Amino acid sequence: MIITFEELQAFLDEQFPQGAAFGSLQKLGDGWAEMKLEVDEEHLRPGGTVSGPAMMGLADVTMYAALLSKIGLVPLAVTTNLNINFLRKPAAHAPIWARANLLKVGRTMGVGEVFVYSEGVEEPVAHSTMTYSIPPEKYRN
């Protein structure tokens, strides 16, 4: 792992403060990350379920954290593809959390998957696969 939990947390707070709206970093390892979102009224859609955009945002920021654990603090690494399958209804007022795992990291791309869980629901509520573009060294920082 290239960065520590504390370094990534400080980087996210400084460079991507709007990311806090999608969840908070809970754990970080070599090529993986976990984040949690405290669900409130703004995350719900009619019918009493967590909205798709809330789950997608959590999944995306969690994958970003996992990728940075491998490549370092690279602000210009960006999502180029995100696919998500909503598997079951999350609990309406319970936190959701995500775990991202990198499958492959190359010079210009990182690919991984994210499982999203709802507190009190044993099985995942969503599964996502993502590809991130990694900028060349000369464009980093």
From TrEMBL:
InterPro entries registered for this protein in UniProt: ACOT13, HotDog_dom_sf, PAAI_dom, Thioestr_dom
SUPFAM superfamilies: Thioesterase/thiol ester dehydrase-isomerase
Domain (Thioesterase) ranges: 47-123
CDD domains: PaaI_thioesterase (cd03443)
UniProt keyword Hydrolase, yes or no: yes
Entry keyword annotation includes Hydrolase: yes
Top-level taxon: Bacteria
Coiled coil regions in record: none
GO molecular function: fatty acyl-CoA hydrolase activity
UniProt cross-references to NCBIfam families, sorted A to Z: unchar_dom_1 (TIGR00369)
PANTHER family: ACYL-COENZYME A THIOESTERASE 13, THIOESTERASE SUPERFAMILY MEMBER-RELATED
Family: Belongs to the thioesterase PaaI family.
Annotated protein name in UniProt: Thioesterase family protein
Organism from which the protein derives: Marinobacter santoriniensis NKSG1
